[in-house]
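note to self: dont lose this again. the chain is below, predicted strucutre after it. 206 aa total, dont forget to put it in the shared folder this time
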Amino acid sequence: MRQVRTAINDVKRTPELKALMRDLASRHPGFREAVVADASITARFRGERYEFRSGKDALLQAVRLAVVSDAFLAQACYRAKAAMQRRGIPFLPRVMHRLAMGLAQISIGDPVLIHPGVYIIHGQVVFDGLTEIGGGCAIAPWTSIGLQSGHYVGPTIGQRVMVGTGCKLLGEFTVGDDAQIGANAVVTKDVPPATTVVGIPARPIS
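---
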């Protein structure tokens, strides 16, 4: 990932940029794998049963969450968009993107890679650029994760990171596993693992 991130900042020609984005898109998880993992973490954070007994049980729980959760159905639309783009299906990914925006104001750019098992709490989020979000993360509303002006590269966020309401994570940096980003924090630099940061600009607290 670091090599790709370095290369993309040096890209000057659009065909090369598109090739790098296609490479990132090829690493998206499968639709079923991602939706089941997203359903499990969503149910766990909601205090509900999150260990599924079978594939049928997982499907039923995903359908239930699509009804009762503010953002799960929109997140599934994003997963469908990513899966179809990986297969080169035209037009329908744009429909899924619009549905995600309409259902829960979830706008996730094409280059963004979200690993399976991410909880988007209520929607109202924007993710863009060459950005990677690890599994086990929980992301609160009114959050932007992506780019600084003039750059293609966004953050790499580790596993089990908690991102509070109204946060802005902008630019090329890494957030370590198990970190916590306080509400309304503005993060533009690396966050070490298992560290809580707050403020504008974000700084660690003891």
